[in-house]
């Protein structure tokens, strides 16, 4: 990675509800540069990195009980934005703090009033997902009708982003598809730029071992397949995977499945008639699964996750048309053969039969058939793993691709220069 040399002393402020979030690499790297001062700001205490001065702003109050449900997220965002703005005003007036560049994820309201406190600062915002009632996650499951109430609620969800879009100097979106979801007038000031994958850390390793919470150990060559989600829920294809697993278990008596994820709901609706989606799906498939060969681990540490990707014969990644998970790219970087859903933005990364396999999201039989092909012939599919890692290194590598471009964006904004706009697909 080429050295970043700021044209003048630079003060950069990073703001993220769950700091460091997408800035886990960029903020510390920027802080290493001569003449650069870096502050980080987030809700939770405890963050520490060399050169980054961290401020936590506490947990703001949420929306009131009488708030219309369409705008509860907006009210919560305004409350958060106000807490952050007040804290920064205090720093400005008492300490003389004035950043040159503010890098922010505005999804929770963190970016609403930053320009009002520091009108001269250049702002670079992270645009992750623009909600639409049609053509992406809402209505993807055709068994659920999209009502006017749904469409209106989703339209109102964009209010926080729209206010922040108006005040942002520039933005980044991690994939072309996520970029394409934003209105045309907004896309003209958004660069397609992923936060990057550390392909040195996420790499194949001989002798890798994955241990389940019960102490069961799995190594490369063992009859293992994997599934990972932050939580086990429909948005990430958990029901489709489990239905496919029921088919696979009948076909292969030695197959072991490692399922990573929590039991909360990150996206979409809560299940009806059950406390969790895992409980609901297992209830629907009662008698069809051999639970002794399914290892539910809950959430695991990052290093453990990488070990899983190194030992699995096939990794299943399914998603609604939605935000692309870091786990898919990291699994490819670790040398796993990925069987992914034929949905955007997965299709932006995986080409079927070239660097992975694509399957219909709602087709358990097709998912099972593709996974079993890889399961039965790991050597015959090794080229997919090699090509998958190569794709991530070439397009998303942290040090050689993404960080240099991120640093260039910060430098250009600090110098008062406008980045180059993206062209349409």
Description:
This protein folds into 2 domains: 10-196 and 398-414, Rossmann fold (3-Layer(aba) Sandwich); 209-396, Glycogen Phosphorylase B (Rossmann fold, 3-Layer(aba) Sandwich). 36% of the residues lie in helices and 17% in strands. It has helices at residues 26-31, 72-95, 114-117, 148-157, 159-167, 176-180, 184-187, 238-251, 277-284, 302-311, 326-333, 346-349, 364-376, 382-396, 398-414, and strands at residues 10-15, 36-42, 52-56, 101-104, 122-126, 170-173, 190-192, 209-211, 217-219, 224-231, 256-262, 294-298, 314-317, 338-341, 357-359. The strands form 3 sheets. It has a 7-stranded parallel β-sheet with strand order 3-2-1-4-5-6-7, with helices on both faces. It has a 6-stranded parallel β-sheet with strand order 12-11-10-13-14-15, with helices on both faces. α11 (326-333) crosses α14 and α14 runs parallel beside α15 (398-414). The two termini are 28 Å apart.
Task: Sum up the structure in keywords.
single chain; 425 residues; alpha/beta; Rossmann fold; 2 domains; seven-stranded parallel sheet; six-stranded parallel sheet; 15 strands; 36% helix
CATH-defined architecture of the largest domain: 3-Layer(aba) Sandwich
Largest sheet: 7 strands, parallel
- Strand content bin: 15-25%
Task: Report the span from N to C terminus.
Answer: 28 Å
| Major sheet strand order | 3-2-1-4-5-6-7
Classify the fold: give the CATH topology of the largest domain. Answer: Rossmann fold
The counted number of beta strands is 15
Q: List the domain count as a whole number.
A: 2
